Task: structure prediction
Amino acid sequence: MEFNEPAGQNLFDNARLVGKPAARIDGPLKVSGLAPYAYERHDVVEGQLYGYPVGATISHGRILSMDVEAARAAPGVRAVVTTLDIAPLALGMLNVARLFGGDEVQHYHQAIAVVVADSFEQARAAAGLITAEYATGDAADFDLHAAFERLQGSGDPDTLVGDVDTAFRSAAAVVDQMYHTASISHAAMEPHASIVDWSDGERMRVWTSNQMINWTRGSIATTFGIDPELVQLESPYVGGGFGGKLWLRADAVLAAIGSRAAGAPVKLALPRPFVMNNTTHRAATVQRVRLAAASDGRLTGIWHEAASHSLPGGRGENATAQTPYFYATDTMRVKHHIVAMPLPEASDMRAPGEASGHMGLEVAMDELAEALEMDPVQLRIVNDTQVNPSEPSQPFSERNYVACLETGAEAFGWSDRSATPGQRREGQWLIGMGMAGAYRGTPVRPSGARAILENGRLIIETDMTDIGTGSYTVLAQTAAEVMGLTLDEVEMRLGNSLYPVSSGSGGQFGAASSTAGVYAACMALRGEIGERLGYDAPEFSDGLVVSGDSSQALADLQGRFEAVDEMTIGNFQDNYLLATFGAHFAEVAVHIATGETRVRRMVSTIDAGRILNPTTARSQLIGGMTMSIGGVLSEEMALDTGRGYFVNHDLAGYEVAVHADILDQEVIFLDTADAVATPLKAKGVGELGVCGVGAAVANAVYNATGVRVRDFPLTLDRLLGGLPELA
Amino acid sequence: MPPPIEFELRRRTLLAGTAAVAAASVARLAHAQEQAGSAASAQQQSDIALTVNGTEHRITVDNRTTLLDVLREDLHLTGTKKGCDHGQCGACTCSVNGERINSCLSLAVLHDGDDVTTIEGRGAPGQLDPMQAAFVSHDAFQCGYCTPGQIQSAHAVIGEIRAGIPSHVTSDLTAVIELTEAEIRERMSGNICRCGAYSNILAAITEVAEDQA
Result:
């Protein structure tokens, strides 16, 4: 089915199930510990051995030699393969760091050997016996700020509208500030893990934890130079992804190599420290944001220039990602510079670019409001636009940003805020309110599914993944809706390369795209059922298929009805800019003596089209808010600039938000319907919650204390010097 | 939802009795023993008895093996999760002799004779315990990986408060400890949820605690 024009009135506008709250259908399995994650598939193949990785201990250079004799002789060891044993493996999709093979070290903890043994303890012990001799590369420069200073103004702008120089010369108010964001780790609770059976060196079966089945299957084929048809990949449960499991990583590669070497299936999970330095992360950014406005608050110029680190060939973290699209402005200049550094691979993390970019742009907007003596909500309202600011002929498909701002301000009690910072104190705590806007694009990707009605039971198969987002449930809601069934009459089968290719999970495109794909497959199944029954224009409701005076219960249909279809997206969508919007409000308390910041309450108002399941969507939002509170207050991958690696590579040193950090959270969905987005009129919500939340907290901290911090995370040391004297 | 294969395996295991499980793990270790030479490995292994979810297992363990890995790799009770293997995330939380511990930080050989309850011992689909059911109804998880540990801690937290064990946020050590949101949050803070379901977890625990009161 092709989605080739904006959706008209359809069955989802009067839905029984879609758009209604529903408990996760995979919930009972998850709360009872029976949902099988990658490393836990004892059942799938006999004789599984244990793999353990060895990582490089330099940031860059060459391996001169490795001594593996002791490891090979260690108890229980079945195979040892070092990176020197094989030629450099080809790079999979959008990987820039080599996962294995050859003598070159590109980053710390790059995998340099895999040990396979009968037990985990034996493999780990033997891995510890391997030594490597390196020729370290020339001293590297890890000073991103200095690199930004050198690069500033160079290269063609990524976006250029009008003449920013003139706008800044004649502006009533100007903000010109530097912002820094730290490198951030996905730190999913389940480390990257795979079981691979490549015992015969021919067919490869992979049980893994991955967001994108088809991409990763292709990357495995590319990496090993084999036919993708020989690779079967399963990932029915993913213990958190956040972009960190979009791509093929070393766990699957090492397990495959170990399996081939040992002639047996091998299971391998990355030890927690490897998650930080072996896998990907959100790169640090340096941003200079310049805003020019007329006295009424209208932006006359936006100038956003940023830099981030990456290995050569990578994309870094483009902090300017939202800037060309968010606010109306007369002129604009936007540029992102990538600075090559021999650090672990910088890549996508939840709202790649925007999550960091909002820390610059939305704090700068707060500073501009203050310079104009204008309310920050009002400043954003006067700069709303219904067209793409960098391409005014392109309208937004739907944009209710102003409604987000007004609804959120009302619900939060924004009118109680003092515009002058440092005015409210409760005992030892300084209280402040802050807000920020949120912008995130919402791409829609082609997505396929198979719908089967067999002896009255509906089965949906698609390679779509559920990374905690609720795919199992929203896809079942969609299928049940279209087929006129109840939720418990649908069996969902996800995350297997044997099933039709879906959008996968990432870029907040998963739910909107894959529900459209299931809709297409179910409509095809309806056609198949009608044709075989000889029903003209059949209707499906209450478990029945009905045509004229004839009707039958789907539960009574004998035999197997099957249809495969894919929703593809027509070119008409290019005429529109598709995006989601939000407004985040935060109240913080900052301790006057220690600088400790507590986020006492938050309200987020969300404009993301039809909300397919308010229960699971709200969870994504509060999850994003929680991740953002960690991100703005404590999360920082601390870089050892001498050795070139992230030092705090575990969950004690890398501080994500915990229960005690999270107080009151409220989410308000505008629950609109974007007919341009998909037939279900739905968009993504998963990444909007990490866009702007951190800026709202930072702006609230300023409002509480009068201390404007522009380097994130906003740790105590960055506040202490500016706090008032203790009484 | 299809029943996961692990679930079927577990049912089969129960039907066949626990001897099959114990025999399987002994076989795995026996192979290791062959490889290592029996004299050295005899000192590296220990025979222990563990009661897990009411079933006694007699197993030979590598002395380096954690309680977590015995549960997951030998007994195939994979509901107890390995998130960090460092005692930093709480995903491996299970109950030993009635107290919650990080099973990744404790060697199995120290637990000879102990009574362990894992998430599988709390309840299964169709017969969830009240905390498991509350986690589902409050959507108190997303990816589900930290969830068994959260539920194990949730049970323990209510018990610890009722037992009068103070926490960092207990303001009056002589008074009866109130089951407040602050107490629950503080005591749950060793269980990290990267999906960020904390608000919903709090709601689930509060509901169960109130129902029990």
